[in-house]
Write a structure and sequence with these properties.
The complex is a heterodimer of chains A (402) and B (249). Chain A has 18 helices and three strands. In chain A, a hairpin with a 4-residue loop joins strand 2 and strand 3. In chain A, helix 2 packs antiparallel against helix 12 and helix 3 runs antiparallel to helix 11. Chain B has ten helices and ten strands. Chain B is globular. The chains are: A mainly alpha (402), B alpha/beta (249). Chains A and B meet through helix 8, helix 9 and helix 18 of A and helix 3 and helix 6 of B.
Chain lengths: 402, 249
C-alpha cells in the first residue's frame, strides 16, 4: 500500500479512521499524564497499574458476563487503583522501598489476572473469546462506541489536569511546600494518580496491559528532552503520543500480521530514542560533542604547558623535544601527535624533524598566558582547566572569613 | 493581630518515628521580631522540629501556636524555606515560576497566577538580588542561587514568621552575605525568622536568639544568655573542638 492510499484510507476508511482516532486519544492522554508520573519519579507506577488492571477486566467479565467496554474498564480501574493503594500501604507500613513495593503489587495482581484469564478461557461461555486481547492489545478491533467512550473519558481527564494545573505542578515539584501552604497534598495526589489510572486504562484495549506503560513513559521522557517548561512538555508529550499512535496504526495497516499495539510502542520508543540522542542541550550526541570539544581543549593546553616546562628545564624555551617525552608526560593517553599537528596548524608548535617538536614564539606566548591564568586561579595542579569561577569564590571567602 | 503574643510558642511537642523518639517534649517561646537559630548535632531533630511545627510531620503530642492562635488558623502568616536539596532542580520550570509558587496559597483554587503575582515575584527576586535570573531555567542555577530563589519564594508569601531549613547550607560567600542582609531587613520590618543553622561560629553574629537541640531542648533564649560553652557541651556531648575559638569572642 502506498502513502497516498494510506492517507486516503485514514480519512475515508471507516475502520482505519476509528482505530487511528482511538490510538491518537490514547497517545494524547497517556502522554500528558505521563509527564507528571515521570517528574514525580513514578515511572514504574504506570507499569504496575496497567498490569494490575488485568484481573479487574476478567472479574468484571465474570460478574457481568459481557464484554461491554464500560464494565471492563471500570473493573480495570478498580484493580489498578487497588494496586496503587497496596503500593502506598507497603511503603508506609513495611521496611520495603518503593521499587520492591511496585514489583510486589505488579506480580501479585498480574499473576491473579493470568490465573483468572486462563480459568475463564476454559469456560464454555463463548463470550469470553477476545478477553485475551487485553494482554497485547488489539487496536484493529476498536469499535466506534469504544472510541467515543475513550474520547469522553480522555477529555474529562485532561480537563481535570487543566483545572488543577498549578496545584499538580506544585505537588510534583515541592510537596512539602505545598502542604505548608495548606494545600490538601494527599487528596491532590489521589486525584492525580486517579487520572494516571484512567489514562492507562483507556489504552488497555488497544495497546494491552504489558506494553501500556511505554505509552505513559516514552512520550514524556522524549518531551522532557526538548523543552524546559512543564506546559510545553505536556503538549509535546501529547503530540508525540498521538502521532506515534497514528503512525503505528498506519504502519500496521500496510500489511497483515503487524499487530497495532506493539508497532505503536515501537514507534514511540523510536521517538524517545531519537530525542535522547539528538535533542539540543540534553541530547547525548550534543553532550558528547561538547565533551569532546572540552577534552580537545584540555589536551592542547596540556601539551603546550608540557612543552613550556620542558623548555624551562633546558633554559631554552624553543628547545625541541621528542614526542616520546610528551607521550610519557601525558600518561600515554594517546592523541599527542594529533594535538601537536593541530597546534602546528595554529602556528603554536613546530616540527623539527625526527619526531622532535618545539614551541614557536607565538606558542611560547600562549603557554605563558595559560600558566599565568592558572597561577591566578590558585590551583597549580589544574593549570589547564581555567577554573576562574572557583578562583573568585575562593578569594571572596578568604577576604570575608578572617 | 496580637503583637503582645509570642510569634511562636510550642508546648510539649513530641515526635516519634516507629517508637523511636525524634523530638521529646519540646517547649519553645520566641518573641516577635527575633532571628532565632536552631542548632544541634546531626540527628538532633532540627528539621523535624520545623516540619512538626508546620504540620508536615505528625507530632505524637504537643501544641503549636503562631501569634497566640493555632497554626492552622495562622497559616497565611507563615513562610517556609525547605532544604534546597529536598527538591529536584531539574524540574522543567524557571525562576519566576518557582517564586510565584509562594502566592499559590493566597491565589486559591483554579486561578492562574497573573500580573499581580508576577510583580510580587519580581519584588521578591529584587530583595535577594536575583532579578537578572527571573527567566532562567532552575536547572542552570548554582547552589547559592537556588537558595536565593527559595528565599524569594518565601518572601513572596509575604509572611510574618519565616521558617528556614539550613538557608546557609553549601552557599558561597556572596550568597551568605546576601542572606544575612536579608535576615536583618526582615528583622527591621518586625518579622520573625527561625532557621536551622550549622555553623556555630556565626550564631552570635547572625542571630539574636538560639535554641540548642538534641532530641530534647537543651536551652533556648537570647544568644548572650544561652549560647554558653556548658550548654553547647550538653548539646554536642563534649565533642566541640571550636569552643576555644568561640570563647575568645
Amino acid at each position: 500500500m502506498d502513502l497516498a492510499t494510506l492517507l486516503h484510507d485514514l480519512l475515508f476508511d471507516y475502520t482505519l479512521r476509528t482505530v487511528a482516532l482511538g490510538t491518537a486519544v490514547i497517545g494524547i492522554v497517556s502522554g500528558a499524564l505521563g509527564c507528571f508520573a515521570l517528574l514525580r519519579k513514578q515511572s514504574l507506577l504506570g507499569d504496575t497499574i496497567s498490569h494490575a488492571a488485568l484481573p479487574g477486566v476478567v472479574i468484571a467479565f465474570l460478574l457481568t458476563r459481557s464484554r461491554a467496554p464500560l464494565g471492563l474498564l471500570l473493573g480495570a480501574m478498580l484493580t489498578g487503583w487497588l494496586a496503587t493503594i497496596l503500593v502506598l500501604a507497603i511503603i508506609r507500613y513495611s521496611r520495603l522501598k518503593e521499587d520492591s513495593a511496585l514489583g510486589i503489587a505488579l506480580s501479585v495482581f498480574f499473576g491473579t489476572g493470568i490465573v483468572l484469564l486462563t480459568f475463564t478461557q476454559r469456560l464454555s461461555d463463548a463470550r469470553q473469546a477476545g478477553l485475551d486481547r487485553f494482554l497485547f492489545g488489539q487496536a484493529a478491533a476498536l469499535l466506534e462506541g469504544e472510541v467515543i467512550l475513550m474520547v469522553v473519558v480522555g477529555v474529562l481527564t485532561l480537563a481535570t489536569v487543566l483545572l488543577f494545573w498549578k496545584e499538580f505542578k506544585l505537588i510534583s515539584f515541592d510537596p512539602d511546600f505545598a502542604a505548608s501552604l495548606g494545600l490538601p497534598v494527599r487528596a491532590l495526589e489521589i486525584v492525580l494518580t486517579t487520572q494516571l489510572v484512567i489514562a492507562v486504562v483507556i489504552g488497555l484495549q488497544a495497546v494491552g496491559v504489558i506494553l501500556m506503560s511505554a505509552m505513559v513513559l516514552a512520550p514524556a521522557a522524549a518531551a522532557r528532552q526538548w523543552t524546559n517548561r512543564l506546559g510545553l512538555m505536556a503538549v509535546t508529550a501529547a503530540f508525540f503520543g498521538a502521532s506515534s499512535g497514528v503512525m503505528g496504526t498506519l504502519i500496521s495497516a500496510t500489511r497483515p500480521g503487524l499487530s497495532t499495539g506493539p508497532v505503536i510502542v515501537l514507534v514511540v520508543s523510536l521517538v524517545a530514542l531519537v530525542s535522547f540522542l539528538l535533542a539540543p542541550n540534553r541530547g547525548l550526541v550534543w553532550n558528547w560533542v561538547r565533551h569532546q570539544r572540552n577534552r580537545r581543549q584540555l589536551r592542547t593546553d596540556q601539551v603546550l604547558a608540557d612543552l613550556y616546562q620542558l623548555g624551562q628545564q633546558h633554559g631554552n624555551p624553543h628547545h625541541a623535544h621528542s614526542i616520546q617525552v610528551l607521550r610519557t608526560m601525558n600518561a600515554h593517553q594517546g592523541g599527542v601527535e594529533h594535538t601537536l599537528k593541530v597546534l602546528e596548524r595554529e602556528g603554536l608548535t613546530q616540527h623539527r624533524g625526527d619526531g622532535h617538536w618545539a614551541l614557536t614564539a607565538v606558542g611560547l606566548q600562549a603557554a605563558q598566558q595559560l600558566l599565568a591564568a592558572a597561577e591566578a586561579s590558585h590551583s597549580p595542579s589544574e593549570y589547564a582547566t581555567h577554573n576562574s569561577q572557583y578562583a573568585i569564590q575562593k578569594t571572596n571567602h578568604d577576604s570575608t572569613t578572617n | 493581630m496580637n503583637t503582645q503574643a509570642n510569634a511562636l510558642s510550642v508546648t510539649d511537642l513530641t515526635v516519634a518515628y516507629k517508637d523511636k523518639p525524634v523530638l521529646w517534649d519540646i517547649d519553645l517561646e520566641v518573641p516577635t521580631g527575633n532571628l532565632m537559630a536552631i542548632v544541634g548535632p546531626n540527628g538532633a531533630g532540627k528539621t523535624t522540629l520545623i516540619k512538626a511545627i508546620l504540620g508536615l510531620v505528625k507530632p505524637a503530642a504537643g501544641q503549636v501556636s503562631i501569634y497566640g492562635r493555632a497554626y492552622r488558623e495562622q497559616r497565611k502568616l507563615v513562610g517556609y524555606v525547605p532544604q534546597r536539596g529536598s527538591v529536584d532542580w531539574d524540574f522543567p520550570t524557571d525562576v519566576q515560576d518557582v517564586v510565584m509558587m509562594g502566592r499559590y496559597g493566597e491565589l486559591g483554587w483554579f486561578k492562574r497566577p497573573g500580573k499581580r503575582e508576577k510583580a510580587m515575584a519580581y519584588d521578591a527576586l529584587e530583595k535577594v538580588g536575583m532579578t537578572a535570573y527571573h527567566g532562567r531555567q532552575i536547572s542552570q542555577l548554582s547552589g547559592g542561587q537556588q537558595q536565593r530563589v527559595f528565599l524569594a519564594r518565601a518572601l513572596a508569601q509575604d509572611a510574618h514568621i519565616y521558617f528556614m531549613d539550613e538557608p546557609f547550607q553549601g552557599v558561597d560567600a556572596t550568597t551568605e552575605k546576601a542572606i544575612v542582609t536579608l535576615l536583618q531587613a526582615l528583622r527591621a520590618a518586625g518579622k520573625t525568622v527561625i532557621a536551622v543553622h550549622h555553623d556555630l561560629q556565626t550564631v552570635p553574629e547572625y542571630f539574636d536568639w538560639v535554641t540548642l537541640l538534641n532530641v530534647r531542648r537543651i536551652a533556648s533564649g537570647p544568644v548572650a544568655e544561652v549560647f554558653t560553652e556548658e550548654n553547647l557541651r550538653k548539646t554536642y556531648g563534649g565533642r566541640v573542638a571550636f569552643l576555644a575559638a568561640n570563647g575568645n569572642r
